[in-house]
Amino acid sequence: MEFRQASSSESTKKMDTEQLRSEYLVEKLFEAGALKLLYSHVDRYIIGGAVPKGNVVKLEADPKAIGAEYFLERREIGIVNVGGKGTVTVDGSEFSMNQKDCLYVGRGTKEVLFASDNDADPAKYYLISVPAHTSYPAVKAAIEEAAPVHLGSITNSNERTIYKYIHEEGIRSCQLMLGMTLLKPGNMWNTMPAHTHERRSEVYFYFDMPEDGVVFHLMGEPSETRHLVIRNEQAVISPSWSIHSGVGTSNYTFIWAMAGENQSFTDMDMIPMKELR
């Protein structure tokens, strides 16, 4: 498991492109037959990917690294399948996972196993885990069951639908919030006008992008913006002081996950366009 320290807004102002990428960009999450994990000290996220291919992949980490006997002893996790059909087994209970299905698994779960239905088209499980103080049951939500919110307009190139999975009125959790945003064809902008939220941080995972497509992810303080060039199936860590917005060379999909002091989706500090620099 890779480890990342949290960087301040002051130090980020002085970073060059490679430093920004090494601090905030998660470039490779998926490897056939493997579990890949990254531990960020920003709200203690563990960000990962599991691709079972010819095997069953178990959710596990070095007990010394996470300070627990098993992965979810004091954590909760959100799982989204972004690949072919598969099955997640949670302490013996099986959950069939189609593409864009979400599964929440709560604190105290001892065993999570990832499998693919077809090795020729393996499942790809995107994982996001945060500390938890109490236990909630495992719950699956297909994209058809998520609460859709339609935002934006074709005039502003940001017509999109937000599907909320884990949130205060959906799947219950301790602090994790998770959803998915799909941009409609011909639309490229997300989350603009930009915002911050001092009470929680966020992780974006971009996918459904063409091989030659990129997203220019905007980050930094509103008066000190920076950018990261993001490619398909990469993630970016966004501290509470940073904006998190982007524009792509075509439409795309991204999964947003938040952790922090509250679960109010609308708790945002909006940035007037005239203040962006």
Q: Quick one: overall form?
A: globular
CATH architecture: Sandwich
| Rg, Å, rounded | 18 Å
Classification by helices and strands: mainly beta
Reconstruct the topology from this structure.
Elements: E1 2-4, H1 9-12, H2 17-24, E2 25-26, E3 35-40, E4 45-50, E5 57-58, H3 63-66, E6 75-81, E7 86-90, E8 93-97, E9 102-105, E10 112-116, E11 125-131, E12 139-141, E13 147-151, E14 160-166, E15 177-183, E16 189-190, E17 195-196, E18 200-207, E19 215-221, E20 224-230, E21 234-238, E22 245-248, E23 253-260, E24 269-270
Parallel strand pairs: 1-3
Antiparallel strand pairs: 2-21, 3-4, 4-11, 5-10, 6-9, 6-11, 7-8, 7-10, 9-12, 13-14, 14-15, 15-23, 16-22, 17-24, 18-21, 18-23, 19-20, 19-22
Using brief descriptors, characterize the structure shown.
277 residues, mainly beta, Jelly Rolls, seven-stranded antiparallel β-sheet, 3 helices, 24 strands
Quick structural overview:
With 277 residues, the chain is mostly beta strands.
Written description of the protein model:
The model has no long low-confidence stretch (mean pLDDT 95). It is built from three helices and 24 strands. It has one domain: Sandwich (Jelly Rolls). The longest helix has 8 residues, at 17-24. Strand 19 and strand 20 (224-230) form a beta hairpin. The chain is mostly beta strands.
